[in-house]
Design brief:
It comes from Nakamurella panacisegetis. The protein contains 1 helix and 3 strands. It has 57 residues and is of the alpha+beta class.
């Protein structure tokens, strides 16, 4: 069982991905400590949405 002192907490972000710049966008977020959780279709066929998380300090 985890105690409040040892429990990890996360923050989350949703990021629109442009198909022609997906790697660059994800690399930028990754450099800031964000981990990719999932990519889902966006509101139009040319767009994807990335769900990211990172541990809070």
């Amino acid at each position: 069982m985890t105690t409040p002192a040892t429990r990890r907490t996360f923050e989350y972000a949703t990021v629109p991905l442009l198909t022609h710049a997906t790697k660059a966008i994800l690399d930028t977020w990754g450099e800031d400590g964000w981990e990719l959780v999932q990519v889902v279709p966006g509101p139009n066929p040319e767009q994807l949405v990335a769900y990211l998380k990172r541990e809070r300090a």
